[in-house]
Amino acid sequence: MNKTILLNNRPKGKPSESDFKFVDEETKDLPSGAIIVATKYVSVDPYLRGRMRDEKSYIPPFELGKPITSTIVAEVLESKNDAFSKGDNVTGMLPWKEKQVISEDKLKEIRKVDGEQAPLSAYLGILGMTGLTAFFGLTDIGKPKEGETIVVSGAAGAVGSVVGQIAKIRGLKVVGIAGTDEKVEMLTSDFGFDEGINYKTTDNMKEALKKACPNGIDIYFDNVGGDISDAVLFHINKFARIINCGAIAVYNETSVPKSISVQPFLIKNSALMQGFIVGNYQDRFPEGIKQLSQWLAAGKLKHEETIVEGFKNIPQAFIDLFDGKNKGKMVVKV
Ligand code: NAP
Predict the structure, then answer these.
(1) Which atom belonging to ligand 1 lies closest to the Cα atom of 156?
(2) For residue 153, what are the β-bridge partners?
């Protein structure tokens, strides 16, 4: 028997354990051309919350009573396909199952990863979706220039911590916003940010940003949306670039969130605000992975992760993202 995790309810507000259901299913026989894999690491990501809503988006919603999927690293247990051997490690968007058969037609959606080159969990973080999000969002939309000031929200998380470090490599002044003093300390001591702001203890975010960014803000890498992002708008410079990567502060809202009007800020500063999805850069992933790997090997990027142990803890690890329990990438080790 083999455990799998289904979407039990569409969450109302913050997800809870009862929104997920564990079921046992029989392990299927291996058809010709297929492989069977055992899950080793599971990525839990804020964007999965959006897929739990029955809404049109850039990716179809999860179906009720069907397995949740996310990026997984798994080990090949048995192969009836010449391209894969027992013991290979692979990654891809796969259902939350302890073990699974991947049929021949689906094998093009997974790729091998090398555990010698980097820890396997890194392929879910710095060398995976979140690292690539940081890299392409910042370099392609942010177009960072030496001497500029960047503010990063969600700064101690998977995407934010990499954005800030890349911005330092590019010679920017980097200010990060995060939700605990420990995380703020980590921004400067571990990731080399210039300053950090704890949004939960700062009474006046507008003032805190003014103090931290005396020359104004040239780039805002927005992982959270909501009030924090409203406050940033008051300090943007002429030709500022605002990168809308995520809006976790509003993912659990049950009504349309209220926000200030962004248009006057953009108009008077000739500023750009652009949303993006990392999948837009799929054709350029090899370029991103190559650069991130080089920086990692050279010690220019630090790779922080929070590893939760146990298949049964996948839902809770996902829920904990909304309480800021992770530092760096949240990953479950099965
Ligand atoms: P993450 O930052 O590692 O984890 C989520 C963090 O969000 C938490 O640790 C928490 O840190 C913070 N948070 C939770 N609730 C918050 C709130 N109400 N206000 C402010 N901060 C809050 O997650 P990630 O994977 O790196 O993703 C970061 C953002 O990027 C998410 O919004 C995600 O959806 C988005 N994203 C977008 C793409 C894309 O293609 N556009 C790809 C990947 C991720 P604190 O302790 O600081 O509160």
Answers:
(1) 47
(2) 177
